[in-house]
């Protein structure tokens, strides 16, 4: 290598290493920056653009460092959404009206953290108009603008996911040709109240008509003659003034609609814009009578035409002159599939005469006979403002539905009407288009907007409710309708549904064409009106500014006398001081006469956790905006107006403290005291916390036990002295129980201690009010006594009664039973005390805080030392896997007869299945420390095996469980559950003979055990009474799941006890109704019965017979009636005698069946047959015959016709039939049946459309097609109509079915509609 080359290599190598080092240094810096940024908290901002309807449902998210300045936030948002920075505002938002919020400063260098953004949480912001003006779009390069212009569309904004939007946000090229704010267009929009787009389109067109606006301004309102609220011209005048002078983006139309006499419901009715035009013009003419504007509508909009008929034989012509306000043009001729190509072609067709020949010949007055004639229309005069209605809404007689014709029809910008008039007119008839009212949608509904040309600048604008934008002539051409070829056949559904509906032309006449009045040309009354409206708008603006600077926060106050927590909303300006806010809150809570104001203060409060966060000592002069962290839509905290007595001192609440409610427990008295509030710190130890509590409640800390209730029934004993409260699970607001007795209970394991049992009982005990049944004398009392003596042995009842000592009539009353059971339980309690261990042996006779209620029964026995000792029994908790709170409502008892009957429920249990097995008597521990016998969890699964789903929806089981296991042993032998009952004096009106019990019971007790406890008070075995839960609406539902607990019950729930045998496993309560097909009320309730799984239909009929005899007076045999399915009021499948419940017939709780008395022998023998109910219609007599049942062997229409022929004698070829509609008996007016039903459907089987007869019970109407319909006079029709209306109202059936009728558009001149009940 030469020396020269060697000298050149050295510097290159140095440069390489220096560059490498620099790269490493830069990478190191970036890693450090990333590491620092990772440590910095970040702020999640969610921004919603509320400036237009396209973006209101879309949101953008920004995750920024907390140190980011507000200025940078605005820049990022502007770049994200495509707006010019500084042309929009950001305000706090959380679903609250943005008018109530102050905007953020877009020039501020304040960090997000200093601006009250919360790191780690969602911060919601609204992007809104700035100073009432819409944000300006950040325009793209001109090179990209050509395509956007080509794709402009002036119709409704596209929906979510349509072209023009992206997944991140929305495209900066909106669907309008350009979104311009009102400062550029100079026009104000109208707010859509709900469905008032049709009204907005017409109002904007009238406003942009110089001749109409100027004439309206010249009219002067006389307040002495009319109420301004109901004056339509005055409210239109005000609206036009606001449209011309307001600085708002859009204004409301509610004052105008109120002058129409409309209420808020009218805003939800969509009408036709042409119909509104007619009705509004009529109303204005009525209001303008005897004024200068009386003939304004006719002068501007009225034309004349001649309706003529010319005889082709003699040339005689008859005619009349008609006036018109608009010309309706047909889009597509009747019977043609080809639409007219243009408005000119449709106008020619409008005046094209037709030939009256054949049966349509015209009777000529001159020829005195019917002759061929030519009939047509001729225009005699065209109005100054020509209105053309394109009749796009038609009726399709094939589908019998309204349709919209979206065919393409062009219309010129200039229209020469001279070719359509016969009268020679020296004046020009050239009209220029200035308004196109567009409809987008279908015949069922859609949206209106207007494209209007301004006569001031000859520019076209789109007035789409509150959005006003500039458009071009190309946009107008897109409203011609039809679809462009590039879109394809199926892709034009949306585009083709947007097309012109009304066109308004103005005559080009320089002598008549007016210009809008300038401000200096306004009449004096309009100048005054403009001034008043400006003052009102300024006042509204000032009020909005005040609202934006007002803090709105929830305010609470515990009334110092009533001790009731009051709630209100405090609205205070951000510059008001804390002292002024206290005065406002003091007056708001009406405490002036209760307590001095210096005994009140505002503190930061968390109502959800009932937690006092902090107090504001020394900050009386601090502004509320600074104190609350700014003006926000919602606050994460509340305020509490705290009060004190004059001799007390307010406690200081410091941030970081936690509130603890301390309940003192007395083991001897078995009571839990009301809470005492103390404040502590999370970093305090348990030992320090004990010292704090000791000072507050004066209990020794050495023997103190503290139990924290972290959530319901989650008790935690604080045993580690050095552990902090935070580590123990303390939060903002906490609840603890404190005990400091000298007993040895603290040496026991906590879950075995007396303290745990007492707290566990305290947490799970609820108070219930039980309504006992009225004691029924006679047979039921005798039966109950016998059953108590003999059990369910199934032996002879009379023999059992003979074994009962004493007369039946000597059964004790409820009070006597209660007193006797109390005495027995005293000895039981004494025995338990003797058998008890340690602390339990010294149990006091005093009751807990929820048990201290005097019992009037104990006054009879002065020797009783205890008032109503607790009923303490050992109850086994059944089915631990179902240890949950679920209330099964199986029987609605609204019908007194169905719930109060006693004898009907005392049925044979031969078909019941008590199959609850208990093979292993070993105890198993439950999660809550209880013990229980093991009950196999697979019994429900096994019970479901082999089920067949035939007619009803299959259920898992009947929803009931037996109260006894297979050996007959009661399920109440193991686990202790608290129960205490005592008489309760209920309110008046509960009924004579009824007694109330107030029961304190552990809600973990099963329903079976609860019923066993109630046995001595009811005076019957638990299997012979039912438990009904009473809800807030006084509706009662039976509780039947015996193995479930009372966990779904809460304090002060009411329970009703009704006598009657409760269901056992596999049994179902069934409501039996009689089916009377030819009665006015075909469904009549008979009785409640009990059907069992495995029972046949015949067996259930046999058990029903004696009940029907005793309760309903029906003497029936099993072959004289049938049972059938009942669905609402409709009769269904006929049940055959050999069918078995749960195998062939799926039965469920709260089941209902029909009982139908047969006239003869049962015709239904197999499931392949089909029973329908037929009814003959006699049109010549205008009456319906009674129902007759027809049993078919198949679903053949031919067989049905043959059967109808047999029972009626109508020839087979003349029979027509139709299926009945609605609920049985498918009532229909005799005035409508002949034409409203679908007679003689073209089908061969009954189980296809439109019949769909697949089950028994369908209603078939039939008639003789040769029988003529009776001709009725008007008097006969009216009389029959009244009779039918009365009949159908009694049966609850509608006369005919019809879709929802459209509400007619009306404007009420007196400002309020007349309530005419005879009109729809």
TrEMBL record:
Compositionally biased tracts (Low complexity): 827-844, 898-913
Start-end of Acidic residues biased regions: 952-965
Annotated Pfam families: Ubiquitin_USP47_N, UCH, USP47_C
Keywords, sorted A to Z: Hydrolase, Protease, Thiol protease, Ubl conjugation pathway
Signal peptide region: none
Top EC class, one word: hydrolase
EC numbers: 3.4.19.12
Region: Disordered, residue numbers: 778-804, 825-913, 928-968
Amino acid composition bias (Polar residues), ranges on this chain: 874-883
Domain of life, source organism: Eukaryota
Gene3D superfamilies in UniProt: Cysteine proteinases
Catalysed reaction equations from the record: Thiol-dependent hydrolysis of ester, thioester, amide, peptide and isopeptide bonds formed by the C-terminal Gly of ubiquitin (a 76-residue protein attached to proteins as an intracellular targeting signal)
InterPro entries assigned: Papain-like_cys_pep_sf (IPR038765), Peptidase_C19 (IPR050164), Peptidase_C19_UCH (IPR001394), USP (IPR028889), USP47_C (IPR045578), USP_CS (IPR018200)
Compositional bias segments (type: Basic and acidic residues): 857-873, 885-895, 942-951
Positions of the USP domain: 188-508
Protein name: Ubiquitin carboxyl-terminal hydrolase 47
Species per Swiss-Prot/TrEMBL record: Felis catus
Gene transcribed to yield this protein: USP47
